[in-house]
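Protein modeling request. Please complete all fields; requests missing the sequence field cannot be processed.
Requester role: graduate student
Desired output: 3D structure, token encoding
Chains: 1
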Amino acid sequence: MAIAKAERLMNLALCLLGTRRPLSKRELRGSIEAYVEAAGPEGSAAGSDDAFNRMFERDKDDLRELGLVIETVENLDGDTGYLARRDSNRLPPVQLDAEEAAALGLAARVWQQARLAGAASGALQKLRAAGMPEADNPYEHSAIEPRIPVHEAAFEPLMLACRDRRPVVFEYRKATAARPGTRHVEPWTLECWRGHWYLAGWDRDRGAERVFRLSRITGKVRSRAGAFTAPVPDVVTVRETVESWAGETATRSARIRLRAGAGYPLRSRATSTRELGDGWDELEIPYGHGLDAWLVEFGPDVVVLEPADLRADVVDRLRAVAKG
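Delivered output (324 residues):
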């Protein structure tokens, strides 16, 4: 069974690498002997189709896990096709020094508690097999373990959509809205800021780039066929967009009242703090886009004093939450 599967994966990889145009499932099914045999006897078309589709999807995922870059594109007749371009699957020799190897080892440990644990470990094994030097990891026996938490169900389908350049559709609830709305997005990348995951991409309905917080995505993320309609910016530009949207880029100062003993993340960012008595402190903190959403998370422990527009935004968000 293991030999048969390895042969099937090899044949599928050769087909995808050897074609100059995308091949549909039907064409791949007729070109690979193992898929032809999976068709079964006549009269069992429905069952054989299901068996083939499951086998093909598993094989495609296995090849991607092994490092093959498989593109999903739409043919002229509207069918979905697959191919693996040689230039996308040809890499230069890997040359890393001990410090770079240690950095990659630490990065792989970050994902051990997330859904990317298998991919991170597999990538590390491939690099070591390619000659990456073994390095002493200063965090190997440390009590402090680096982690990036991933709790949102939307993370994995969006990560795959970003990788495969596939448009997606999902329901998204804005902080100021009582009900979620449908968003059609061309996903660019996922970024983590201040413990929260954000998706940056092109919102087709609004014709502009947008940033979405994953915790506000409701329901399933559904993929759509077709190519991106907007150019994908470089990674640095996207990170700057997420940083600004998440409130990391401050242009003004805000003055708030904070309950004593609460809001330690706010206190760590404060430029000045003054005790008011009666269990309250007054803080001055940098004010940028997204600060209103962050302040709402502290509920009754925060009162915005100024500026007036920030206070109004926080009140609107709290009213939206109260309405459910």
